Amino acid sequence: MKNNMKLAIFGAQGYALGVYESMRILYPDREISLFMVSKMGNNTKNLAGIPVREIASVAAGMTSEEKQNLEVMIGTPENIQTDIEEILENYGFKCHSRVTSEKWKELMDSFHQKEGKFRPLISLSGGNDSPFVRIFMAKSEKDVALINSPALADYILPVQAGAENAKVKVASRADNIGENISTKNGNYCELTVLYWMWKNKLCADGTLDGNDGQYYGLSQYRRMLILTGDDLLKIRANDVDVVLPYPLPYEPDIQMHHERYLKDDDWNALLNALKELQPEYAKYFIQVLGQKYLYNYNVILAKKQVLRDYCEWLFPILERTEELSIPKGSERSDRYIGYMGETLETLYFMKNADRLNIVHTGCKVYT
C-alpha cells in the first residue's frame, strides 16, 4: 500500500465492508474516499457512511493524473477479482491490488487481535501433538472447474454431494451411502454432506484416542479453512472446541443481507420451526439477525462431540422448516436451506460463545 495516495475499495458487500473496517482501525491515516462497483444494482448508495458509486461515473469525473493517484483495493470474492482488474484497467485505474484470501486473513488476524471480538487462531500458543483431523470436502458434478485446483492435505477427504441423483462420479466417497438425505441436495447444498458425516461418522461407535482428540469438519470444493501444521498443534494444545472462518460484516445487519436471497415466508417458516423446537434460540434469533456478522459458507472444524451436538440441533430445525415452507421443501430446489444453514450456524455458535472455546481463521477461496 502506498500511504501517500488516496484510497478506494472496489466492492460494496461483506468483503468490502470488512476491508474498510480493518483498514480504518489498522491504518487510521489512510482516508478511504469511496466504494466502487461495476453497477449499482441492489447495492446501497452508502456503506459505512461513505458513498458507493459506479466506476463509470467515478472515472468520468477524474483526470488521468487523479486516477494515477488513487489506489484501489479489490474487496470482493476472489473468483471475480481478475475480471475487476480488467474493468479497472479499462477505465484508466492502474494502481490496484487484490485482497486475496491470504490478504483477507492477514487483515482479519490483525484487526480481530486488536478489537478482541472474534478470537484469531493465530493468537494461540503452540503445542507438540497434532489432533486426529478429518475434513470432508463437498464436491458436486455441477461444480465449476477450478483454475488453481488445490493440493489437498491428507486429512481433507472429498465427498460427492447430491450423489443419489448424480450422473457423473466426482469423488470416491458419496453422500448417499448409509443414512443420508442426498436427494435433498438441491435445497441443502453442502449440508447433505454434513448430514452424512453426522449419521455415518460422528455417530459411529469407536474412537481413536477419545473424542477430545478428534476433530471433524466440512469444507466446500472451492472454500476451505486456512490451516497450517502449526495451527493444528495450537488447536489441540489450547483445547479448542470450534474453528470457524472470520465472519463477514453486512450493513445494516444480516437480516437485510439475507433478504437478497430468501423470501419472508421462508424466514417465517424458520422462525416458527425454532419456536417449536428450540424456543430459547428463537428468542435469541432476532438479536442475531439484528447484528452485522455472518458465518458464511457452512465451513467448520470442531471436536467430534461438539459437531455432533450441533448437527443434532441443526437438522431437526431444517427438516421442520421444510415442512412449514410455502412451497414445501419437497416441492422446490432453490438452495434456500443451505442459506438458512449459514444463519443457523451463526445463531448457534454466537449463542454458545461463552461455553465453547471458539477461534477463527481465514477461508481460502479457490478460483
3D structure, described in words:
There is one protein chain. The protein has 367 residues and is α/β, with parallel strands linked by helices. The protein folds into 2 domains: 94 residues, 3-Layer(aba) Sandwich (Rossmann fold); 245 residues, Spore Coat Polysaccharide Biosynthesis Protein SpsA, Chain A (Alpha-Beta Complex), CATH 3.90.550. Helix content is 38%, strand content 19%. It has 13 helices and 17 strands. The strands form 4 sheets. The chain has a 7-stranded mixed sheet. Strands 3-4-2-1-5-6 form a 6-stranded mixed sheet, sandwiched between helices. A two-stranded antiparallel sheet has the order 11-17. It is globular.
Question: What key attributes describe this structure?
Answer:
367 residues; alpha/beta; Rossmann fold; Spore Coat Polysaccharide Biosynthesis Protein SpsA, Chain A
3D shape:
globular
Name given to the CATH architecture of the largest domain: Alpha-Beta Complex
Runs with pLDDT <50, length 5+?
none
Major sheet: order of its strands? 9-8-7-10-15-12-16
C-alpha end-to-end distance? 24 Å
The sequence of SSEs as H and E is EHEEEHHEHEHEEEHHEEHEEHHHEEHHEE
Helix content: 25-40%
Average of per-residue pLDDT values: 94
Number of strands: 17
Q: How would a crystallographer describe the biggest sheet? A: 7 strands, mixed
This entry's quaternary arrangement is single chain
The total tally of domains equals 2
By helix and strand content, what is the structural category? alpha/beta
Binned strand content = 15-25%
Rg, alpha carbons: 21 Å
CATH topology of the largest domain: Spore Coat Polysaccharide Biosynthesis Protein SpsA, Chain A
CATH secondary-structure class of the largest domain: Alpha Beta
